[in-house]
Write a structure and sequence with these properties.
With about 375 residues, this protein is α/β, with parallel strands linked by helices. The chain is built from 19 helices and ten strands.
Length: about 375
């Protein structure tokens, strides 16, 4: 499956690049404002929430359950589907309402649309069950943050018979101050896919007039949480800045990913998520230019996280064999200082020799540095 995934991505990437060149499209620099003071405070808030995730989630659940609410902890998408079927059966649901969801597209990741169709529920503007994708849980108040929503939306949630909400375990804010920091940060960015231009948002804590179910989903995110370096990705606020600044993604678009996650964030997350084993190759679709880090308002070390992901996949032997062989062979080569002081043409020939036929067929090999290792060391 991994080999097929690599070929599929490589073919689509090559096709997208060819189309971009044919249309005379060029990579453009995308300017984003410098991180604000609110962004710095928000980054600290998100990092702290991630470090103390168990404590923060327990506090959220305790406060959230004070209303007529239910929390369903789900390890993967199969748990979600089975529990959702039970809710539909218990409340005799015949129709559903699914209003616009956030950029994270968790419901798509979990296959919620497929499930409601399988249950033969009718879509309606006034359905028996409302499906809601949550932006963040707020532990201090036990409420759900919904960006880009207004008072009418909140009124519908409070009066609807059954609300079924979805959020991943990492999307939590410890304090109410974090909400203001997030809104201020998103408003200062261009574009802001998960927030309307006027900065509207609502906090929903449940209502005694309705049943509210909240699915808190892991779906293998705990694998990332165990890694002290990679879990920094959970400070991402879905602003889309990194993807729009990435020269690779500007050329190939979203098509090759064939997934709800795209861009630099995808290259860190997808190899670790459940049912995503066919994506172990995508951390290598990167030039390491650092533009993603330059524009990230959360100042996430995206390059370092991609390198850490590559190392972990290589150590666990979860990398396509052609890539693994090339990395291992060239790694031994560059560790030899004498070989790094050889002329550039010799080092280029060695790279060509080490790269597998499949890699050379699907991508151009990089050019080695014209200067030797000692020459570059002396300049510094």
């Amino acid at each position: 499956m991994e080999k097929e995934g690599y070929k599929h991505f490589a073919e689509l990437t090559a096709e997208s690049l060819h189309r971009a060149m044919k249309e005379n499209r060029h990579v453009k620099d995308v300017a984003f404002p410098a991180p604000s003071a609110a962004a710095a405070r928000l980054r600290y808030e998100l990092m702290q929430s991630t470090e103390r995730l168990d404590e923060v989630l327990n506090r959220f659940e305790k406060n959230f359950l004070r209303q007529n609410n239910h929390v369903i902890w789900s390890s993967d998408y199969e748990d979600v589907i089975e529990e959702l079927k039970e809710i539909i059966k218990q409340h005799h649901v015949q129709s559903f309402t699914a209003l616009d969801s956030t950029e994270s597209r968790l419901m798509e990741e979990l296959g919620v649309d497929y499930t409601v169709k399988q249950q033969k529920l009718n879509p309606s503007s006034d359905g028996d069950m409302m499906l809601v994708e949550v932006d963040r849980m707020v532990a201090e108040t036990g409420s759900l943050l919904l960006l880009g929503k207004d008072a009418d939306y909140l009124k519908r949630l409070n009066s609807n018979g059954v609300n079924v909400c979805f959020v991943s375990i990492d999307r939590v804010l410890s304090t109410l101050k974090g909400v203001g920091q997030m809104v201020e940060t998103l408003r200062g960015l261009y574009p802001t896919p998960s927030l309307t231009s006027d900065g509207r948002y609502v906090l929903f804590g449940g209502s005694p007039r309705c049943e509210t179910y909240l699915f808190v989903v892991d779906n293998e995110r705990s694998a990332l949480l165990k890694n002290t370096q990679l879990r920094k990705i959970f400070a991402c606020i879905d602003c889309d800045a990194c993807r729009k600044a990435c020269p690779i993604d500007q050329l190939i678009g979203d098509e090759p990913y064939d997934n709800v996650f795209t861009g630099p964030r995808a290259r860190v997350m997808l190899p670790h998520l459940e049912m995503m084993m066919g994506y172990n190759h995508i951390p290598y679709v990167c030039t390491m230019c650092g533009k993603c880090e330059e524009v990230c308002p959360m100042q996430l070390p995206l390059r370092q996280m991609m390198i850490a992901t590559k190392r972990e996949l290589l150590a666990q032997k979860k990398v396509d064999a052609p890539i693994a062989d090339t990395i291992t062979g060239y790694g031994r080569y560059v560790a030899d200082r004498g070989k790094m002081n050889r002329p550039a043409w010799m080092r280029q020939r060695q790279l060509k020799h080490l790269a597998s036929a499949e890699i050379k067929e699907n991508r151009d090999l990089p050019q080695v540095a014209p200067a030797t290792f000692d020459e570059m060391r002396k300049k510094k």
